[in-house]
């Protein structure tokens, strides 16, 4: 599995979203050709992406939407509960905390953290906003898997480091700066992007969410409307 | 140009983001191999994606970061001003309005719209929140190109339709429902996803931003950390 490109994982997420749409439209079966058209890639690409993870569907018979969806949910690790803390509870952090859909995939918000005296102690989504200083103990005591970063750009590096030091396994960065891809940079002491957990070393994964990418795609398609696949899915964020 | 896959446009956006990072690191030259590694695709894919739009760089010499960046900015249509209205000025809409970076690419927020009596009339980012009923006149009078949708899911379809009826050329949908890909569905009278503008018909482009995609990628990489390319860029939103 060590040669699966990042783009293939993004496409798997797109295929899953398409399967959810098909299920919503009560369409029971699909094919690599159908998925390819909706995803704006080739049918060969779809089959190749899926082949990394096993053989789904029956040759010449296509795929059962419900079964392929279940398989992709399993492959993507969405069949387990993920405990999430949000660091930064300003407009963006509150928008994320209140954004519907995360719970569909067992992303559970268990803690909210900030440094602002106006926010610490406040209730958001039945959770009390805690001070960032409590992060490390909280992550340990609550088996936190992921941290979502929604702090101002100038705070992102330190907040990400605090999440890494607290021991989260992954960071989803909504702040408008690039962090990672494995560990916040500029901390030579952290070096390899790994940290000791018991006896083994493991990477802290960082995914950056780019709000501007959608704006850029939109600008392109407004100027080139004929290139917009009318059957295409939403482009994944 | 009628066969450029949607995925290629998303990759162009990724390449541009990588070039911005390289420029930030004062790296003056790159190559299809370097871009490919950072984007998690093949060098052939990079060359193929770029070849849709012309010949950049010199054979065997790679690319000048600044020049390729400028070309991609032009190709993506980011070298012009885009007048944007935001519909929905709750937490998410305000987070978008205040998210840094949009102005770097001449996305100019010229109007904010909502239906809530608590919001209409309020000042956000030096703009007065207007009632959605004023949208049509405002779009016409202010040469609005794009509408960003940040309304609750149950309002998204109607709000998108209001933007289309007002005459915007594209919609970036942040609401947690899929709209489009060309026009809000469920309006048979709108049918083809086109509307009359003067004598010609043109499509209204819709891009959907999927907050959950990043969460799903993160879940996968936490379970498969060795697959995470340590040199990879942030995955585009």
Please, could you describe this protein's structure?
Two copies of one chain form a homodimer. By secondary structure, chain A is α/β, with parallel strands linked by helices. The first copy, chain A, contains eight helices and eleven strands. In chain A, the strands form three sheets. In chain A, strands 5-6-4-3-7-8-11 form a seven-stranded mixed beta sheet, with helices on both faces. A two-stranded antiparallel sheet of chain A has the order 1-2. In chain A, strands 9-10 form a two-stranded antiparallel sheet. In chain A, α2 packs across α3. Chain A is globular, with a radius of gyration of 20 Å. The interface between A and B is large, with 89 and 88 residues.
